[in-house]
Amino acid sequence: MSAAVVRRAPAEPVDARAVAAAREALTGAAPLVQCITNSVVQTITANALLAAGAAPAMVDNPHEAAAFAAVASAVLVNVGTPTDDTARAMRLAAAAAAQHGTPWVLDPVAVGALGFRTRLAGELLEHRPAVVRGNASEVLALAGAGGGGREVDSTAAREDAAEAAGALGMSTGAAVAVPGDVDVVTDGTRTVRVSGGDPLLTRTTGAGCALGAVSAATTAAVVLPLLAAVAAHVHVGLAAEVAAEVCGGPGSFAIAWLDALDAVGPDAVRAGARLA
């Protein structure tokens, strides 16, 4: 494993200093992230990973997915536009990641609203992702506590999902992140709230999916999933704030955000992280 990996015992604080160290570790590790993701967001996902200091690999062929997951630094599985082939690739990659100790992230897009992907996400959970990143409705559905969201939007209050997220974290060992005006990240033992970001993120196609990819990249550099998820949310949120100050609207925001993902380093993270 890379010398840049941050090794932290679960009892250590998840604070601004730790988050800054995680940002530095991500740059040092330059992880290779396998992305089996939504067909709508592949370009912005790949570009966000490159900007953050990681290397993307969009390997979603079922004949290759397991072999690549075994050697990748981390894996992202996003169920946004599943086909029979990509669903098979997801199952194979998640199983191989679990077998070979590759950390992986599950983004359960619209789970609960549609049966096929809901069953698929339930199967994938058995392979114990390091991080689950979903809106309140998706997390409630995964935890068996709700019916799911309307398409990709949350119809449940974020705080209503906090208890379900904690239970999901306890049962899977994952850090569960529920984004919003204040992001909630919990592993069932500890809960961290991350403030920041900008509303233009919600008007940028694929920004949330790219956050899942940055979370995956950070799990390759940081041992503790809770810290990895928090660090990714801080990094993405601060980059959004930087971009919002210089952009003219949603189109230029997307470009400025990618620039800021590259520019926001450990010092900016340490100074800007707002955690509770």
Oligomer: single chain
- Based on Cα principal axes, name the global outline: globular
Count of DSSP helices? 11
Q: What is the alpha-carbon Rg in Å?
A: 17 Å
Structural class: alpha/beta
Strand order of the largest sheet: 2-1-3-4-5-6-7-8-9
One letter per element, helices H and strands E, the order comes to HEHEHEHEHEHHEEEHHHHE
**Largest beta-sheet details:** 9 strands, mixed
State the share of residues found in helices, binned by percent. 40-55%
The averaged pLDDT comes out at 92
Taking pLDDT < 50 over at least 5 consecutive residues as the criterion, the unreliable ranges are none
Number of strands: 9
SS strand fraction: 5-15%
* Termini Cα gap: 31 Å
Structure write-up:
With 276 residues, the protein is of the alpha/beta class. The protein is built from 11 helices and 9 strands. Strands 2-1-3-4-5-6-7-8-9 form a 9-stranded mixed sheet, sandwiched between helices. The model has no long low-confidence stretch (mean pLDDT 92).
Short overview:
This protein is an alpha/beta fold and 276 residues long. It contains 11 helices and 9 strands. The longest helix is centred in the last third of the chain and has 22 residues.
